[in-house]
Here is the input.
Amino acid sequence: MPTRATYPVAEVRNNAGFDGRTPFRLTDPTTMDALYEVHVKGPILLTELLAPLIADGGRVLFTSTGLTRYVANPAYSVYASMKGAIEVYTKYAAKALGPRAITVSALAPGATATDFAGGMIRDNPDYRAMITANHASGRVGEPADVAGAVRTLASPSAGWITAQRVEASGGQSLLAVGRRPPLHH
Here is the structure.
């Protein structure tokens, strides 16, 4: 059996996922089960399986979503609920792994130009403009923005950040849609 001494794991990044649309009152049990398997059951069981191999002082990072904080399209209600479950589990895992100085956090990206939801933010300029209108940063995220947040949370300098939901959203939902504050120089 592998041990921490022979095969130390520096970090576990739970990042599998899919959007699985579940419009309110039209939630399909098969889609709901698949969302649970990928977003809750899989990350929890993988983390617990790998826990004995994680190096003391290591990192566990779950991927959540900005949709747990701000309500957007109701078609993502079950997806967001599953991510909310991982945010709660993050705190319990942090408590269990804390004595070994292993940090556990959940990164919650905001709207990002990826293939999520069929790539709507990335590929549809009108939709992208609508989403951008409520971002304090004036733009949606790019994959490199999320990667930078992951690198930060995995770094040695983040050893005091644990049991946290960390949002990387460019200030999404801080502005009323269509209202940008004036820029002063």
Notes: Residues 29-50 form the longest helix (22 residues). The helical segments are 29-50, 77-97, 120-123, 125-132, 143-154.
